[in-house]
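anyone seen this seq b4? input:
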Amino acid sequence: MKSLWNEAEAKQYTDELGLRVYSSRLLGRDKTLVLHGGGNTSVKLEEKNILGEHETLLYVKGSGWDLESIERAGYAPVRLGHLLALARLPRLSDTEMVNELKTHMTIASAPTPSVEAILHATLPYKYVDHTHADAVVSITNTQDGLARIQEIYGDTVVIIPYVMPGFDLARLCAEEFPKQVNEHTIGMVLMNHGIFSFGDSACESYERMIKLVNKAEKYLQVHKAWTKPSGFPAADEETFNPYLALAEFRHRLSLVANKAMLVRSHTEYKYQAFIDRDDLYEVSQQGPATPDHVIRTKRLPLLGRDLDQYVDEYQSYFDAHAAAHPQDLAMLDPTPRVILDKEWGLCSVGRTAKEAAIVADIYDHTIDVITRATSLGAYQALPAEDIFAVEYWELEQAKLKRGGQPPMFSGEVVVVTGAASGIGRACVDSFLARGAAVIGLDIDDKVVTNHSRADYLGLVCDVSITQHISQALQMGVKQFGGIDMLVLNAGIFPKSCAINQLSNESWREVMQINLDSYLMFLREAHALLKLAPNGGRVVMMGSKNVPAPGPGAAAYSVSKAGITQLARIAALEWGADNIRINTLHPDAVFDTGIWSDEVLQSRAHAYGMTVEEYKRKNVLKTSITSHDVAEMVAEMCGPLFSKVTGAQVPIDGGNERVI
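predicted toks r here
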């Protein structure tokens, strides 16, 4: 591990809190130190209050902030004297502790201080850093971890046995640290938890963290416990053959969880090598690398696909430990968050794509910890009762309750065709805003880079080729676990042409893209839509030209009339499969690619109008935008239209001929 400290960068921060932010971000950049909100840092500062009195404050990382991106506003200032007094109490409940932390902050709008705030306060150093370094945890999570830590660090660290985070840990540290500290002490190891460093400056504390972790890494290297699985990453397959089985599993999992869930398959060589281990059951069924990971990953991964057995075992785990809990507990959903399967690889599960990505990141590092600890002798996680205590920790339960109502399409997946621009791209935005994971397809490669986020997959796809459609759906299932909604929007609008001048080639091109592709999508997606936990939904993009065609657009009008009839028949055939299909008929949406100046002039000429007159020819004299259409599309897939199928809805500002 190399130090990332840069004096030129550091000089941009002119005060001690600024330097606290800078060094914290350096820690956050290294995922082998902290992951997704893990770890915490602090600095003790003297400030003058509104009465002109000087007081010492502990600025500690606030709950909900990530070290990699933390700002000054991410630190909560708490009166140090009160924290030290709290550390001397014989007991303090979690609720009482949080209340004391929040009521003794000096900025009311600051985030809730870290549950480790009292611990940070008891350490007699200006700057304190805490990480969950993979290398250190790899060593502590072994049968002889204590002896190894003592061998590595000698008297340079204080060693604390595992105690659940919060007040009990802070109180134990307050008692033990003064007994063990000496002139050589630069850090503290919490067994099965993580490591602390500290110093008089941000730089000193940060550099000590790097030094301490380096020692652990070198120890692993010397003992031949550092190497990762060798081999080449699996190539991105053009096809993902077990996609339907994965979609079926996701359906079952969502029913057990009582909410739609996303499942992402990771088939890289590293995960396949781990799954192929002869001792996979022994090493994977012990518990997480650190207790706080249980909130994201559950205690154990599912091996294979026996979901019923996993749920039964989770129920037994809950019953066994809830009985000893001082409070009545409601069991969390019993579905796995990590699945290890020879065909699917490592599958990560989440209510959102971001959650699933976090689960995958955490288990990726867990594999490293397990592999290295096993190379040292044997991986040994904390007992189940310790993991349960964190999974059902009062403070973590409170976080879940504060989560609020999830967005409309949380846990659901939509495919949008023609997604690179115009109405299609607007549909992507509308579904993302409502919490859906989106698979955007287009022949234009801009579809790949329009968004860079966990809940979006952009694929180049020629919708006129069945194989392209099939591959796109398979890759979508590999990314998110299934398909719930289908927005068929891709199409072309040819130049105005009278029937007596319409060539066979032009006619066939329009039919192939505007009609045939819709049939192919419905046929290929049907089996997946049947497995949508909340029922499948399809919106077909029709046109005003269906009820009110105009001259010079024979091929376009007929193709749109064809998909309207196709949607009606599909609604009749698929109702028993709990799939609803509706058609939207937009008109005069002029912010789309098909409305070039040439097309506008041509259509206006056909109606004997100027371009401006043509644009305002609806009853309401209003403009219809791609965003307007996209919002209607999204709502038609939502609960408002839950009892509607086979419908045709105009969105045109009122067209006299349609009316």
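Residues 413-587+626-651 form a domain with the Rossmann fold fold (CATH 3.40.50.720). The two ends are 70 Å apart (CA to CA). kinda curious what u guys think
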